[in-house]
Specification:
- By secondary structure, the protein is mostly helical.
- It has one domain.
- It contains 9 helices and no strands.
- α7 crosses α8.
- The chain is globular, with a radius of gyration of 15 Å.
Length: 174
């Protein structure tokens, strides 16, 4: 999928966020994403993600899928309050925004640090010193494979949506 098309889809997804401040900052971070974000596959080795994400633009496509899965779950359950839906939506769109580091060229050596790098980028954009609900969701999105376990329903939803999106091929094979 080409950059312009996937970027438009991600920005349209961000437009579903009702809080104008969260929507605006999420859109800004998408527009400011490192150039590799639009080119990189979702997986460096192809084991944990669908085959159609193991190509140029796969990381951005994975990000869109994580957002769509989380929104589908939230929209099908009336228990999610709008501020939480906005935080989860933003976190899904930003969870891998620093997957290969902070620089445009990217480097796989940053993979293990990417939840922290992305959470710190959120904090910088929001001008805050400690994690807000969005940064917390981003920081914990890898669950037991990341720096911190999810501890809130919003954090668990982002983690599960990310995990499910990465296993779509496995589900379809069964």
């Amino acid at each position: 999928m080409d950059k312009d098309r996937i970027q438009k889809l991600l920005l349209n997804a961000a437009d579903s966020i009702q809080d104008p401040k969260v929507r605006s900052r999420t859109r800004e971070m998408i527009m400011e994403a490192p150039s590799y974000f639009w080119k990189a596959p979702s997986s460096q080795h192809g084991r944990h993600h669908p085959k159609d994400e193991f190509c140029e633009g796969g990381l951005a496509l994975h990000t869109l899928r994580v957002f769509r899965i989380a929104r589908l779950i939230m929209d099908s359950n009336a228990g999610w309050k709008q501020p939480v839906k906005d935080s989860v939506s933003s976190a899904c769109l930003l969870h891998d925004i620093r997957r290969l580091g902070p620089k445009d060229e990217g480097d796989i050596k940053f993979f293990d640090q990417h939840p922290d790098l992305a959470a710190e980028a959120v904090k910088e954009k929001w001008h805050i010193k400690s994690d807000n609900s969005i940064a917390g969701c981003v920081r914990s999105h890898m669950g037991k494979w990341g720096p911190v376990l999810p501890s809130t329903p919003a954090q668990w939803l982002v983690h599960y949506a990310d995990n499910l999106a990465s296993k779509l091929d496995q589900i379809m094979k069964r």
